[in-house]
Amino acid sequence: MPADSVSVTGWGRTAPTTARLVRPRTYGEAAAAVRECGARGGIARGLGRAYGDAAQNAGGAVLDMTGLDRIHAVDAGGGTVLCDAGVSLHRLMEVLLPLGWFVPVTPGTRYVTVGGAIGADIHGKNHHVSGSFSRHVLSFELLTADGEIRTVGRGTPLFDATAGGMGLTGVILTATVRLQPVESALMSVDTERATDLDDLMARLTTGDHRYRYSVAWIDLLARGARTGRSVLTRGDHAPLDALPPRARRHPLAFRPSRLPAAPAFVPEGLLGRTTVGLFNELWYRKAPHARRGELQPIPAFFHPLDGVPHWNRVYGRGGFVQYQFVVGHGREETLRRIVRRISERGCPSFLAVLKRFGEGDPGWLSFPVPGWTLALDIPANLPGLGAFLDELDEEVAGAGGRVYLAKDARLRPELLAAMYPRLGAFRSLRRELDPRGVFTSDLSRRLGL
């Protein structure tokens, strides 16, 4: 099978490494690629939206799974789909929405594959109601290091190790996923401002149960009495009777719009404190104090950045770090302290969101636990950023929280066991299932997974 030696990086573009990129088109070719990946092993890769080094493998093989992208069967009555792991959530929406079904969980981009959604056990704005993606996966087929294709069902150790296991238990080939019924491709959205972090947390705590989807954009450059001021957006799929007459003609039409791509070259420092501060001020001021029932297309509500191809270029050649952590309920003071520290340091982040997680999921390395999760993008060339984030890691671990491995690019390995209590079980299963270390990545070597 042909393979190209290429430079591979995550969406954050911070640490490129060179690997042999293999593009299987059949399950047999995928099995052959696993057998032939060599001493440095291999790792599956989807559409490259992991921010850090989870789908990189310096000196080894990277299996581009996007060629395995068939939708095998849709049960339009029962609400399930059987598809290849290389199918994107975007493609599922194109096929399923006209049938009255939606993906059960979507992150901030629809350009992720089903295999990647399971491997990272992705979450979305509905975690407090629906949990993470793997909660809706009924079974999957997994190509393991011995060349065997195993059908893996819910409730088994291999399922729980693979859900959130970052591709290190094997290559997911197909999956059967339970879907969410919808009456339209529009969202009914409520938007409101929160004056500070405490105001925001109070609104989320008292009101989230009324909404399927909930997320808050937070201004991390605001200080003093305005620290944590936010724009809170919550909603649900709009029922047919809420649509105006014109929209009822084609209620399930899915028509994403696209803007021009971000330029290939962006000057370093474009997203500094001044420009991001100006953006944040304008974004907060333009938001309504309170608006109810606004109809928005699905792409605008869930995936606004997908309309700008290659938006990650706006951070310049140095790339950016996406930092996401969660701390449990009862640890609100830790969240307040971290938000204050980020604000006082002046980290220029215009993509910062706060959400509440619901009940955790069984994946041994799944990220969500009940509590508060904050995610932010920071230019990687910010002076002293590494040491600053190391300090935040210590606070998070000390509060019993964790960072998200699918977005991580720099966590110190000694903190991992404190953040993920099932790490020992994961490592043990990996040694039993893959004694030669066939499946490996830059992330797994860095963290000793």
Written account of the structure:
- This protein has 14 helices and 19 strands.
- It starts with a strand and ends with a helix.
- An eight-stranded antiparallel β-sheet has the order 15-12-14-13-17-18-16-19. A five-stranded antiparallel β-sheet has the order 5-6-10-8-9. Strands 1-2-4-3 form a four-stranded mixed β-sheet, covered by helices on one side.
- By secondary structure, it is an alpha+beta fold.
- Helices cover 26% and strands 25% of the residues.
- It is globular and about 60 Å long.
Strand order of the largest sheet: 15-12-14-13-17-18-16-19
Structural class: alpha+beta
Q: Largest beta sheet, briefly?
A: 8 strands, antiparallel
* Mean pLDDT figure: 95
Per DSSP, the total helix count is: 14
Share in β-strands: 15-25%
Shape: globular
User: Span between N and C termini?
Assistant: 29 Å
- Please give the share of residues in helix: 25-40%
Calculate Rg over CA atoms: 21 Å
How many strands appear in the DSSP assignment?
19
pLDDT < 50 stretches = none
Describe what is shown at a glance.
With 449 residues, this protein is of the alpha+beta class. It contains 14 helices and 19 strands.
